Amino acid sequence: MIPKDPFILLSYVNTQLRDYYDSLEALCTLRGIRKNDLIDKLDLIDYHYDEKLNQFV
Questions:
Q1: Distance CA 29, CA 45 (A)
Q2: Dist. CA 22–CA 3, nearest whole Å
Q3: How many CB atoms lie within 10 A of CB 13?
Q4: Who contacts 35 (Cβ-Cβ below 8 Å, separation ≥6)?
Q5: How confident is the model at residue 51 (pLDDT cuts 50, 70, 90)?
Q6: Predicted pLDDT of residue 1
Q7: Residue 30 buriedness (CB in 10 A; 0-12 / 13-18 / 19+)
Q8: What residues pair up with 56 in beta bridges, in sequence order?
Q9: Distance between CA atoms of 41 and 53, rounded to whole angstroms?
Q10: Which among 29, 1, 27 has a CA at the least distance from the CA of 16?
């Protein structure tokens, strides 16, 4: 289960991307997360996925 709070979600997702996954696609696929829902939720707090950095910035 992933965090509901967008700020905690941001920390969780960036940690997962840094430590375990080489792309957002891999994270979403292997964890069963809807990519668009994740992107939309983090967009609410003005964070966007940077593919080169492999994190939300």
A1: 23
A2: 21
A3: 25
A4: 24, 25, 28
A5: very high
A6: 83
A7: exposed
A8: 49
A9: 19
A10: 27
DSSP string of the chain?
Answer: ---SSHHHHHHHHHHHHHHT-SSHHHHHHHHT--HHHHHHHHHTTT--EETTTTEE-
pLDDT at 31: 96
Q: Is the pLDDT of residue 30 over 90?
A: yes
- Give pLDDT tens digits for 36-48: 999 999 999 999 9
Enter the tokens of residue 9: 């979600």
Residues 6+ apart with CB under 8 A from 1: none
| Overall pTM surpassing 0.90 (yes/no) | yes
Residue 49 sits at φ, ψ, to 5 deg, of -75, 130
